[in-house]
Design goal:
Layout (H helix, E strand, L loop, with lengths): L2 H27 L8 H4 L11 H12 L3 H9 L4 H28 L6 H8 L2 H30 L13 H28 L3 H21 L6 H17 L6 H26 L12 E2 L3 E2 H8 L7 H9 L11 H27 L10 H15 L4 H35 L9 H6 L2 H16 L3 H29 L8 H36 L3 H36 L4 H4 L1
Antiparallel strand pairs: 1-2
Helix pairs in contact: 1-5, 1-14, 3-11, 3-14, 4-12, 4-14, 4-15, 5-13, 5-14, 5-19, 6-7, 6-19, 7-10, 7-16, 7-18, 7-19, 7-21, 8-9, 8-11, 8-16, 9-11, 10-16, 10-18, 11-14, 11-15, 11-16, 12-19, 12-20, 13-16, 13-19, 14-15, 15-16, 16-18, 19-20, 19-21, 20-21
Length: about 575
């Protein structure tokens, strides 16, 4: 099938979904453009910052459009392109966009409270503590997976031999561009704060910063090892987690969105001009030798492109505190998600058309497959190969980085909320230390760094399962919120039930697979006197512990939430 037709069908479906279903949800739940949002009422210049709707949209899209839409769609294509396409469209419209918009809506209507604090209000303090612990564990998985991806993308040396890679200059140039983005983000943020420029001035300045970053990066590449890039990545996300939103996070997301726009435009125009044929099979069967059974693996592998619990943490953790008008919630919550679904479809088409040959998927990581495919389109337009490759390497690394800095901030906030009490002024010194911004950030990042030693390929299946379970837990909370405030919640039950079945099945399967891996390693290594068993335990044992915790915590939250839902009275909060 022609890939251009696939992209056009997806675009029509997603635009129609936003126009009709998204607006129907907004009308059903109710949006008040005259109401004071939390950003306006509680402006503090750090987290609560009234921001233009399109800037918030850029922040939301940049934060949620991480590695998931590319990695998940390309990995799951082993089942065939049609199942992946259907899940992206159905999941994006009825699962993901509804969850993202719902989380943003509930948070804005509740003084910008995060999902954890909403759970305390609607389900109870015990549920809040358990959920925050679940969230914190989940953010560790995201930090580990995405930080490992970024460091690997910029790495200039072969890990086994220590020799320079053929793409050392390309990777080093992309790394330098990324660092320049960080520097210019701070300059951009300070300039905007001082001179308050908006509109075309803001756009022009962003584009100038992007161009200068690429000029510097291409001419002065940084040739570092993966470990060095890992240290640089963690230093960056530390500052992103503690600095005010306007100073680094928002400006970087704003500039990155223009770059993502160029990447998506290049891919779409390339598909339009070349209109290559999809070289992957339509459907390969319900079982894959490498991935496993299509249920539940397809639905946890394609996460961010269809539905993602992480998105709701962004919606309620950062975006809800910057929305200056309720009318912006639809484009920020629902709109950013459907655009990400389109990105996932494009990644699928690139992998199936530009990379696959004779029905066989291309070799290499999903990032490499996607970036090399789009870079080929840019070369077709006359862009020099080196510049095209650096641009795409930077784009795919930015996909992970923009989610990484957001999740570092959310992980820090989850850790603080886990130990916070109402009267923090009279709290014990230990509790004050645990709730300290810098201490919470350091603990979160140190734990994430330890998990990077496992490698993103091993973490990804567990991340996908935890991510989708988180979306189900958010949907439960939204059901209670909508019920007690007298709003319709029937549209949430189908995605809620499906995601609970998918995620618990996937977690149990992952648990059993890791137990078998440890048993097999012990059987082989111990009689032979080998020391590999310890390495296998580090890779699988830590995941095993986290998997058990996620299953137990998830069950506790589901049980408590179900009790709270059945006990809650319809419209009770509205009446009060």
């Amino acid at each position: 099938m022609n890939t251009l037709v696939i992209v056009l069908i997806a675009a029509v479906v997603l635009i129609a979904a936003y126009t009709f279903y998204g607006r129907w949800l907004a009308k059903k739940w109710g949006i008040d453009p005259s109401a004071k949002t939390p950003a306006v009422k509680y402006e503090d210049g750090k987290d609560y910052v009234p921001t233009n709707g399109w800037t918030v949209f850029c922040h939301q899209f940049s934060s949620i459009a991480g590695a998931g839409p590319v990695t998940g769609a390309i990995q799951a294509a082993a089942f065939g392109w049609l199942p992946v396409l259907l899940w992206i469209l159905i999941g994006g419209v009825f699962f993901g966009a509804v969850t993202d918009f719902g989380a943003l809506y509930a948070s804005v209507k509740n003084e910008g409270k995060s999902i954890g604090m909403l759970i305390e209000k609607y389900i109870g303090k015990f549920g809040r503590k358990i959920f925050l612990l679940f969230c914190w564990l989940f953010t560790l998985l995201v930090i580990a997976a995405f930080a490992d991806m970024v460091a690997g993308t910029f790495n200039a040396y072969d890990i086994a031999s220590g020799k320079l890679l053929d793409v050392a200059n390309t990777n080093g140039a992309a790394g330098m561009v990324s660092i320049m983005f960080m520097v210019f983000a701070v300059i951009f943020g300070i300039g905007k704060k001082k001179f308050n420029y908006t509109g075309w001035k803001e756009v022009v300045l962003a584009l100038v910063c992007i161009v200068i970053s690429f000029i510097v990066g291409i001419n002065f590449p940084l040739i570092f090892t993966k470990d060095t890039w890992s240290y640089i990545t963690f230093i960056y996300i530390f500052f992103a987690a503690v600095l005010p939103m306007w100073l680094m996070k928002q400006p970087r997301d704003y500039m990155t969105t223009f770059m993502f726009g160029g990447m998506i435009a290049g891919a779409v125009i390339g598909l339009f001009v070349a209109h290559p044929t999809m070289n992957l099979p339509v459907f390969t069967g319900f079982k894959n030798a490498k991935l496993g059974t299509m249920f539940p693996i397809l639905f946890v592998t394609v996460a961010c492109g269809a539905v993602s619990g992480f998105h709701s943490l962004v919606s309620s953790g950062t975006s809800s505190k910057t929305v200056e008008n309720e009318k912006d919630m639809l484009k920020v919550g629902y709109g950013a998600m459907v655009l990400e679904s389109l990105l996932a479809v494009i990644a699928l088409c690139i992998a199936g058309a530009a990379a696959a040959k004779n029905g066989t998927a291309a070799e290499g990581t999903p990032f490499y497959i996607f970036s090399s495919g789009v870079a080929g389109f840019f070369e077709m337009f006359g862009v020099p190969k080196h510049i095209a490759t650096v641009f795409m390497t930077m784009c795919v690394s930015a996909l992970a980085l923009t989610s990484l800095d957001a999740v570092a901030r959310i992980g820090r906030m989850s850790f603080q909320e886990l130990f916070s009490v109402d009267d923090m002024e009279n709290a014990s010194p230990v509790r004050k230390l645990l709730c300290n911004t810098y201490f919470a950030t350091v603990v979160t990042l140190l734990c994430g760094y330890v998990l990077t030693k496992i490698g993103y390929a091993n973490i990804w299946p567990l991340f996908g399962s935890a991510n989708q379970l988180l979306s189900a837990l958010v949907l439960i909370t939204l059901c209670v919120f909508l019920k007690v405030t007298g709003r319709s919640n029937k549209m949430l039950f189908p995605p809620l039930i499906i995601m609970l079945c998918v995620t618990f099945t996937a977690l149990v399967q992952r648990f059993m697979a890791m137990v078998e891996a440890i048993k097999s390693a012990a059987t082989v290594a111990i009689p032979a006197g080998k020391t590999t068993w310890g390495a296998v335990f580090i890779a699988n044992g830590l995941q095993l512990i986290i998997a058990v915790l996620l299953i137990v915590l998830g069950l506790i939250i589901v049980i408590n939430s179900t009790r709270s839902y059945t006990k809650s009275r319809k419209e009770s909060e509205q009446t009060a």
